Each structure stands twice: as C-alpha cells, then as structure tokens.
Amino acid sequence: MSSMPSFRRVLLASAAVVASAPWLGVAASAQSRDPLPPVTVQAPDPAPRPAARPKPRTAASSGRTVRAGRRGAAPVQPVAGAASEPGSGAPASLTVPTTAQARQEIQRIPGGVALVPDTEFKNSPASTVKDALGWVPGVLIQQRWGPDGRISIRGSGLSRAYGNRGINPLMDGIPINTADGLFDLYEIDPTAYRYIEVYKGANGLRYGANSLGGAINFVMPTGRNAPEFEARIDGGSFGYLKSQVATGGVAGAADWYMTMSAQREDGYREHSKTDAERLNANVGYQFSPDAETRFYLNVSRWRAQIPGEVTKDQALNSPRAANPVWVQQDQQRNIDSVRVANKTTLRFGETSVDFGAFVLERHVMHPIYQWLDFHVHDYGGFTRATDDRFIGGFRNRLITGLNIQNGTIDINQYWNVGAAVKGPLAASYLWKSQNVSAYADNSFYLLPNVALVAGAQFLHAVRDQQDRFLANGDQSGRRVYNPFSPKIGVLWDVDPAWQVYGNISRSAEVPTYDVTTFASPASTDINAQTATTYEIGTRGRRPDLTWDVSLYRAEIRNELQCLTSPTTPGACTIRNADRTVHQGVEAGFGVAFLKSTFAQEDRFWFNVAYTYSDFRFDGDATWGNNQLPAVPAHYVRAEVLYKHASGFYAGPNVEWMPQAFFADNANTLTVDPYALLNFKLGYDDGTGWSGYIEGRNLLDKRYISTTIAVETATAASALFNPGMGRAVFGGLRYRM
Prior knowledge:
globular; disordered N terminus
C-alpha cells in the first residue's frame, strides 16, 4: 500500500513542476497551435526517401516521423484540406488521411499516443504485430508461438490465456474485433499497412473507445499514395517463408489498392506449424473535392497447430518440445474470415462527417480439449463529425460520434476424443452481443497554445446467451451494461516542437463471451471492469534528440481476470478482482552521436524504449497487495544504429527484462529475467530494390516469453510458452 500513495505524490509533484515551469522560458507563438509530429521511440527509418520519382513516397508522405533515430526534421505544418498526395500529384484521399495529416491529428490528444509509419517495420520479417509495435513504450507484446501472442496496453487483458481483449482494434477506423470484444492477432498483416495509430487508455476516445488499453488503428495505403507495384519475399529460421505482392493506382476520380500475402513456418517448437493467406484491398471514388467513398475487402485464412503450455522446467530445458497432451489431441486453431466495409467522408466548410458500415463473417474450427466449431456474424455502422472553427475569437474543435456493433456467435462444442476427432456434443450456445455507444470530445483553446479538452462516452451493451444443450441444465442468461466514461485534460504546446499534457479519465470494459458467463449464479454476477486513470506527460524534440514520457495511475474496480483451471488446461474462468492498481511509466528517448563519422551526414543513433509496470491488488481479502501476474515490472528495448545517407544501416539491439515476475495471484512461481542480443543490417533508399538481414537471440538464450495466469501455481503447473531460440531472417523488396 505504501508505494501507491507515493506514486500519486510523484504524479502530483510532476504536475506542479510542469504547471509552474519558470525554467522553460519559451515564448508561445501562433505556430504553437499546430500539433507536433509524434516522437514515440521506434526503430529508426533506414534511409531518407527521395522525392524526384513520380510515385515514390517522400520522407513526409512515407510517414517519416520524428522519433528516436530521426534527423531533426522541421515541424510538420498543417495540411490544407486534401489538396494533393505528396510525391504523386494526385488529389489526396478524404477517407484515409496521409501520414502527415494523421500525425497532426493524433498530436491533438492530451495523453499517450503514437503513430508508427511503415518505414518503421517493413524492413524486418514483418510477420507479427510485435515486429510493428514492439518499440512503442507501454505496448507489451508477448509471443506465444508463430504469429499468436498477447498484446496489452497498461495491463489490459492481463491474464488472457488465448485471444485478446481490453483494446479496441480498428482497420481504417472500423472495428475488427468481435462484437463481444475479443480479437486475434493473426488477421493483422504488417505488410498491408501504411501506418499504425496507438491510443493508450482513454486517449482512444477519438474513435469512441473507452477500454483500459485504448485503441489501435491499422491504416491501409490507398491508390493515391501506394507504389504502382510492390513485391517482397522473406525467409528465415524454422521454416519461415513469406511472400507479398501489392499494386495501386489512380484512374480519374477512382483509386484502388490491393495486397496479397502468404506466410508459413514450421515453428520453433514441435507441433507449431502455421500458414496464413491474406487479401487486403480498398477502392475509393472521389465525387468532388469534398466528397469521397471507399470500400474495403479483407479476406483471411489461417491454419495453425498449437504446441501448448509446459512447466517452467520444460520451457527452459526442453524449449522446442510441445505439451504431449496437446500433441495427442492435435490441438489447432483454424479460421476463415471475410470482412466488407465502407467509409464515406463529406466536408461542409469547417465540418467534416465520416460514416459507414461493415459486416464480418468468421468460421472458427478449434480443436482443443474440446472441439469448438463456431460461426461469427458481426455487423454495424458508425458516424463521426468533426467541427473545427473559431468561436468568439477562440479556436474550438468538437468531435462527436455514434458506433453500433452487433453480432452473434453460433457455437457447438464437442469432446475431442483424440487427434482432433469430434466426439459427442458437449455444449451448444447462441451468443448475441449488442453495443451502442455515443461519444463527444471537445478541445477549447484558452490560449493559442493551450487547449482544455473534455469528453465522454456512454455505452449500452447487452450480452445474451441461449443454451441449446440442456443435458447439464439451462445456462441461458442475459446481462445489460450501461457504463458512462468522462474525460478531462489539458494540452500545452510549449513551442512548435514540445508538448506537455495531462488528463483524468474513466474507462469501462464489458465481459466477453469466450467463457461461459451464465454457468452459475457466481458467473452471472460478473460485472463490467471500470477504472479511473490519471496521466501526465511530455513529448518533443530538439536537434538530434527526441523524447516521449508518460506517467499514469489507473485505479480499477472489478478487474476482469481470466484464471486458468489447473484441472482443465486451456480453459479459464472469468472473475472480478475487487480493487487493483495499474501504474507505470512509458518512456522513449533517442539521441544522435558520432555524426559524419565515415561520410557526410551519417549518424549513429542511440534509441531506448522503457516500460515500467507496477500492477497489484489493493488490499484484497485473499491476495492482499500482491503483484498481479503475467507482466514484467521492467521491460527495455535499446539499440545503437548506424545510418548512412545512401540508405545503408546496421547495428545491434537488445531486448531486456531485468526482473522476474509472477505467474499466479499468490506470487509463488516466477518467470526469470532474460536479455536477448539481436543485430540487423540492410539497405533501403525508398525505391527500387531494398533488403535486410536480421539476427535474433544471437546468444541462444533460453527464456519464457509468456505465461497464462492461475490463482496458485506450483512447479508442476503447465503455464509457460518458451521464447524462440537463435534465428536469422532476411528479405528482399522491390517498389516501382
């Protein structure tokens, strides 16, 4: 308990220092109203991109952003309307902002945010979400096997065994999670996106998100900013092979973009083969400079074996072995999905309106300890209006929106009698989810460089379960949730390249349907998780220096814990914890040194992304002030990278977890610290041919990458997924 008030005092003291700040001595200018480019630390772009060719992306249009490893770029100035797409001469899209426009928008938010352009992650295997977002402080991604893993922001979905929750994932601003809140990482193909937006916590209110983890928006290119043709091939250890081809173009008022990829790997562990094929496409039509519509098609197929969790001893001493029970049952996860969506943007002077609709169909064939066979049908719509004008001489920006996301899951569960063979029917349900949310977010500029931000979201959610297998009793049920989540904050542009912010917000999260929510009176009473979060921070840059630091404290009621049963591995039961606290620091820094060492304008960059997570029970009747399981207190990524103006880059990096963390509420079994040494080198001048070679875990360190959570663990508990051993990957890419 003693550490919690002290952390609050740190927040309050930091806020007081920021508020007084006589040492700043920086005069605010009219320019300071313009939002900053993001400075969240990421692996740096390998090279600047030329603008002389007709289609290639320039540094601005490619999403070159000022974060660790950037060369002191000038402040990004406002983009006027949708005049033209940089580097192409074509009118810019109204429905999909350019990277520069998105960079401006996200920096209007008084809280932890990040924008990651494709230049940050496409010169890598680009096979998992960790490849794309692994350098964002505060975003914890723990790989289970293949492309599957747990993603958590500020402790969201902390104890999830499989699947993810607590974050609102979007594609071009349109939901991609199921209506009850679950989502899988397999649908995310990093090679398909122009940039990725990360909104931590209630900072995701821009899209109506109000979960503890916030929102992540994956944004595709359009024909107005994509290469006419692009192809790549990647390969590496453990049978990894991926190919991708893409094309885009403009024909009068229409444009199109399409990318297809195929990915397979034998896997580091026994019984962990995966293969996936994905198609992502969009077609837009611009009726006028103020009206555009765009249609999206996303098709995915995934086939995967599941190696299963093992004991700590097995994970460290026989890391490539699978759980023999998983092998005997031939546990798998196989998913086919199709998503069709539309987004239309209209502009009326100082007001713009986005609206659209989507439908998603999934078929999941999932032999685990039972044989799960279910069909998902989700549909919904959205509208969002943005009004930016001066009122009485003061600038005011108002965003209002309405989201509807409904869906059904038709699920039959059979006994797995071995080797993924369906046995007798064990359960049959029809799950129905309804979600209607309304939100508003207003920024009022008290001064040209100081904005007071206030907003709120109201969510009406229904979870209905119809039990169609009554041999073990009727487990039908229905719950209605109506959480209200307000937010208030302040954003101060100290100068055109420096921001200070703070906010207080509330979040809410409704239980998902991945477990039987109405099996007993105890599970029927599962409540929505709510939290009040306090946050302060600063981001900015100076020549050859960038920084982004956020401090937060979330006081949570009814945290949703998914605790695995020791008698039924793979299954978990949702329970509400009483009071818990999530508090921490998200910090990224980058500095250039040894400039012009071997050639004019070359640089060595030192980049570091640090996440501190102090998550614990708060006076719990059973667990006292124990630490919450499944998350490290400290997580560090750091690199030294040499960059030559020609496009060559090379350097080592480390991934370091310096302190053990627990696998159970009782704090009896730990996951040991580890440090991984990696190295990469490559060449990319922005067009034509580029390539890379990357070595990971070069010292072949044996470590545990992730754990599932239980109440009390023992040395015999099979909870752990071993991390991948030494691996080398390489790839070639061509753009024209």
